[in-house]
Specification:
three-stranded antiparallel β-sheet; disordered N terminus
């Protein structure tokens, strides 16, 4: 998804006491007024404010009634160090571009959460030396923007790094303690059985540190999913994992569980239509789940005819839709009624493959070098460089190039 993905930082010497407990009242400097209710932060879809042809947040608010946005992503600097940046390149300390977006949203009565991590780049949990220095880096973000909510998006390859996950979970706990009322979500990969081995290890790390966020959200896509039924099954299985890990009953587990979907065509060629979102929304609300979000608002618009729905894009969904159809499900989850009416949850047909022959099936054990081809999930793929055991996915930073349906 996210679809954009070390050094030891010096921030370990920064004292959180100097900035910690006042962070939530610092919002006046960023144009913040009173915080929104937690249901809005739980319903905030992801928005890349400076990449992937960012849409006008104010226009989305006017068209849908949406009030909250999940801004992505905070990373360590590409050149190394333990200080927060947008996308690894733009220092938070000197940022004005994202600040302007936030001010626009808040001027219209909305607010933002900020997401750290994602799939690309180096994460602060990898770059900083311990939980305290990691938290100090994130505290700079909270203080600068007067945040009332933050999201820890823990994915590959960071969540395969035990020390990095320890730093991230420890930082989340510190921020939660030093910023009373801060809404904290933790997002990780979804699998058919709920979440994979690394996701389960992350939950055990949270348990060992005595940390409980508002929710643990899974992303049930890019893992062989096929529509809403496979997603709700994964959510039910993840609920069982939460119960067994933390000793919660089913209702308590659902109250700490979230869904983070992908609208339209996923990285691996799965398709999720408006009807799928409606089904998952019904499941989430009927089970009193805590969060319902998706990746992303940048993609919540129809592709041009030239795209023909045959590729995964960071700027459109590759399914038939009106602009901001998917955002309206977040609005409904928050408890509001979209001003233009609810989108019609009609199934979107999967584009017909052009009929080209599929190459030999991709194998996790096979070594592929630049130019080698393989088929996976009814698409042909070409290796950009040497790779082994990396599942084909349509990402600019990954080893595979999608050559289309077969």
């Amino acid at each position: 998804m996210r679809r954009l993905r070390a050094c030891l930082g010096a921030a370990a010497a920064v004292s959180l006491a100097a900035v910690g407990t006042t962070a939530l009242v610092a919002g006046s400097a960023s144009g913040a007024s009173t915080a929104l209710g937690n249901r809005w932060y739980a319903a905030a879809p992801y928005l890349m404010p400076t990449d992937n042809d960012p849409p006008d947040a104010g226009a989305i608010m006017d068209a849908t009634g949406l009030k909250a946005f999940q801004l992505a992503f905070i990373l360590a600097p590409n050149g190394g160090g333990c200080s927060p940046t947008w996308g690894g390149t733009s220092a938070v300390s000197s940022d004005t571009a994202v600040q302007s977006v936030i001010s626009t949203i808040r001027a219209k009565g909305g607010d933002v959460s900020v997401s750290i991590g994602g799939y690309g780049g180096t994460k602060l949990g990898q770059a900083c030396s311990d939980p305290a220095s990691t938290a100090a880096a994130y505290q700079q973000v909270i203080t600068k923007y007067g945040l009332h909510a933050i999201d820890f998006d823990l994915e590959e390859p960071e969540y395969e790094n035990t020390a990095a996950v320890h730093n991230e979970i420890g930082a989340a706990k510190i921020l939660q303690q030093n910023n009373p009322g801060l809404y904290v979500s933790v997002t990780t990969a979804g699998t058919a059985d709920g979440t994979g081995w690394f996701g389960k290890q992350m939950l055990l790390e949270a348990k060992s540190q005595g940390f409980t966020p508002n929710n643990f959200s899974i992303m049930p896509f890019d893992g062989g999913f096929n529509g809403a039924a496979s997603q709700t099954s994964a959510l039910a299985n993840f609920n069982t994992i939460l119960q067994s890990t933390f000793g919660w009953d089913q209702a308590t587990a659902y109250a700490h569980e979230g869904f983070s979907g992908m609208n339209g065509r996923s990285d691996t060629g799965e398709y999720f239509s408006q009807a799928d979102f409606q089904t998952v929304l019904d499941f989430a609300t009927s089970h009193t789940m805590d969060r319902f979000t998706f990746w992303s608002l940048n993609r919540d618009r129809q592709c041009s005819p030239a795209d023909n729905g045959g590729r995964t894009s960071g700027t459109c969904s590759s399914v038939a839709q009106n602009s901001w159809d998917f955002a309206k499900y977040s609005v409904k989850f928050a408890g509001a009624t979209p001003p233009t009416g609810t989108p019609t949850p009609t199934p979107t047909p999967t584009p017909t493959p052009p009929g080209g022959a599929c190459k030999a099936a991709w194998s996790a054990s096979t070594v592929y070098t630049a130019g080698n081809e393989a088929s996976y999930n009814h698409h042909n793929w070409k290796a950009k460089w040497w790779t082994q055991n990396e599942t084909p996915a349509a990402t600019d930073w990954g080893p595979w190039q999608d050559e289309g349906p077969c």
